[in-house]
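[agent] plan:
  1. take the single chain provided in the ticket
  2. run structure prediction with default settings
  3. attach structure tokens to the ticket
  4. add a short note for the reviewer (M.T.)
[agent] executing step 1
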Amino acid sequence: MAPYESDDTTTAAGPEEPGTGRRRAARYVVPVTVMGVAAATIGLVPAIADSGDPDLPKITAEQLVQKIAESDVDRLSGTVKITTDLGLPDLGGLEDGIVSGAAGRGEGGSSADPSSKLTELASGTHTLRVATDGPERQKVSLLEDAAEYSLIHNGKDVWGYDSASNEVYHATVDETAGKPEHQPPATPKDFAEEALKSVDDTTSVTVDGTAQVAGRDAYKLVLEPRQSGSTVGAISIAVDHETGMPLKFTLTPASGGAAVVDVGFTKVSFDRPAASTFDFTPPKGAEVTEDGELDHGREHSGKPENAPKSEEDLAKGLDGLKMLGEGWNSVATFDTGGAGLPAGEAGGDLGGFLGSLGDQVKGEFGSGTVFSTRLVNALITEDGKVYVGTVTKDALVKAANQGK
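[agent] step 2 finished; step 3 output follows
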């Protein structure tokens, strides 16, 4: 665990546990869409108070982290507001087709499939209703203007329902396995736990006063990179002083400006939700698609024969992933095995279009294109290597030179 900076507590980082490298990679590696644009990562930043600064007993950073770890809240219901602004380039609506296509919509797909519907959370502002009753029952509802999408886990059944299209998705899971992989991170706790896994000795961890979130008194835990060169500004978690449950987090990049990600409860109750909350029966006339019926492959998609046939194939390719640097300046790199992104005349119209979305760079590694969001930058070289991190463009070029 990284050093904790508070009035009276400091601890040194311990030995790295097995799997820490992969977790660290998960923090920095992001999917690259078919247009070559790096997507998202999650983080937090200090501006989290709803109102007031409650007078709470003094607590150290180490004690507050421990309070989160010991929190045993497994029953709750409430409303969560999520705002995401990664600053992706404007593709004039083309990105909607990219996202739906990458998620497997189209022939053999379903609008109720969680892998397609919940990609909407990657941008804009959304309101979610959430409920949890232990590891076997969860419900997340995405509220839309004139419709609602719900994802329900109740025992062995996972249901997705899109009221706009009256389509239903159904899958079964091991009842003893806890929350299914279909369930997205939907509460501040989900994001806070992932952020805390990434804490190491390159991170400053402090307590920065108190806040009030969803009518509850909370402490503010702040994580900040010790290194320069990261695009991350700071991470702040509002922690309920009674239960240790994270109530809110927000993300602003080091460059400042509006939050990249802001996730927090606007209402929350720790009472047990009614059992009927998790009941679901497909409405009359609804089209029901079983998970095994979905066409997740690309046999008939018209893709090149050497293109990845599924997300599983892409994941296997990431087995060769390597990490360069350390801490917040870590850069993940892997080889796509392809020809990269041709630029200029060699790339034709497609190369010119892709080039317009990024910045052309050169170095000892050769040449490539850097695609940027407000937090994550990705360098794709002409020989098919990818470098991704929450670091500046110059840091990516430096990493590519070192990894040559």
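[agent] step 4 note for reviewer: Residues 6-50, 91-107, 296-311 have pLDDT under 50 and may be disordered.
[agent] ticket updated
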